[in-house]
Structure formats: structure tokens, C-alpha cells
């Protein structure tokens, strides 16, 4: 399974999964149709599936147009997003599995950003390859999504699920927010040396217009404050030993940053 990152809108990413054997593609969270259609024209294949993580317009905006071009494609999304995702045909619950390109992905229920948010995790098929996590707006490189429909407790639980995945997992999040996220992270975790090094690397990458996605989950565990709510340094900075309260105060600070 090949993965191609397509830029869209201002700072979105669309991910195309490609099955070379069958000349078929699936797309994760298509914000716009043209980048996807251009890609498929270049490779000469058809689109068979849309994997949506949640209902926001910058993740489902191209569903209807892509369905017009490929009437037989199947639209997947969370069961609790019923009626909110254009063209949705498959309604997924936690623990469900989807199949594509001889790979099987587990569906994770990760509410917080929205009440129905899901993620797709393709575990590695050999010891030498990474797992692939498509997490929408739940986890970002260096950050996490705003809480529009969920609670801090839900988000801590959701991020906790993702934190349990192997360090080698590649994190395909839907926005290029990394530099700003790390600027914030340094304000609450200034003595974190891996974070300091990462910020310098990301700053240089963005100056050269390079994407910072995917990131590695092991790097996120070291440097992303929203996966470190139980870190003594962050708990001290947030003046709380309670994980949910620590996270909530972090999220509040980030919302005002």
C-alpha cells in the first residue's frame, strides 16, 4: 500500500492510499476533489473508497464530487456521524476493521474534537515497516484538535489510545500545524531537550517549504504536550496532578495562544 500526501485548501492534507496490484485508490478526508482527480489521472486508476475521520467540511468537502466521478465508490465514517457525512454508506464502530490493498485497519473511536471522530490504524505487516495512523484532527504533530463537541476527559482517553500504539507508527494528521504547535509547546515545556531539537528541525523544514507530516508517534510521545499530561514537568507547569485537569489547562492555553 503506497501513501501519497496531497496539499489542499490552506493547510490541509489529503492522503491517497494506492493499491498498485489492482490499480485502485482510497482517499482519507478529501477536502478538495481536484488534487485527488489529478493524482488518479496521473496514475491511471479508479477510486474505490473514501475513509472519513469526521464530518467537518474540510474533511468531507469533496465527497459528493468524487462520488459523481466514481459512482461505485464506498464512503466510510463513524457510526455516530450518520447524516453528517455526504454519501456515507458504511457506519463504523470502535473495533471494526476495514480492508484495503491486502491491508487491514482497525477503527479507533477517538471523540473529543467531535463527538463521532474515528481514526484508522493499519498495523505493520512485517517487523521492518511502520504502522500507519490516520487520525484526522484528534492528534496533530506537536498538538491536538480543539474540543468542539467533546470533553477534556474524552480527549485524554482518545489520545491515550493513540499513545499506546508503537513508537514506529507514522502519524498522518490532516493539517500542517506543526511549527505553531511546537512554538506553543516550548512555552509550557521549555526544558524538554527533544522538543527544542525538534523545533529547530521543523523550523528549518518549513523555511524550505517541506511538509512535516507524517511524524513518528515516538517523537510525539517525547515532544507533544498533549500526549504528556502525566509528565511531572507539565503537571507542575499547569499546577495540577490530575491528568484531565492538566490536559484541560493545556488546551485552554493553546486556544488562547
UniProtKB/TrEMBL annotation:
Pfam families under this entry? HAGH_C, Lactamase_B
Manner of cofactor binding, per the entry note = Binds 2 Zn(2+) ions per subunit.
What CDD domains is this protein classified in? Answer: hydroxyacylglutathione_hydrolase_MBL-fold (cd07723)
Q: Which GO terms describe its molecular function?
A: hydroxyacylglutathione hydrolase activity
Annotated residues that bind Zn(2+) 2 are located at 58-59, 137, 175
Documented EC number(s): 3.1.2.6
Show where the Metallo-beta-lactamase domain sits: 11-175
Q: Which UniProt keywords apply?
A: Hydrolase, Metal-binding, Zinc
Which co-factors does it depend on?
A: Zn(2+)
Pathway annotation from the record:
Secondary metabolite metabolism; methylglyoxal degradation; (R)-lactate from methylglyoxal: step 2/2
Catalytic activity, reaction form: an S-(2-hydroxyacyl)glutathione + H2O = a 2-hydroxy carboxylate + glutathione + H(+)
Coiled-coil parts of chain? none
Q: Where does Zn(2+) 1 bind?
A: 54, 56, 113, 137
Q: How does it assemble?
A: Monomer.
Record family assignment? Belongs to the metallo-beta-lactamase superfamily. Glyoxalase II family.
Q: Which PANTHER family match?
A: HYDROXYACYLGLUTATHIONE HYDROLASE (PTHR43705), HYDROXYACYLGLUTATHIONE HYDROLASE GLOB (PTHR43705:SF1)
Stated name of the protein? Hydroxyacylglutathione hydrolase
Q: Provide the species name.
A: Spirulina subsalsa FACHB-351
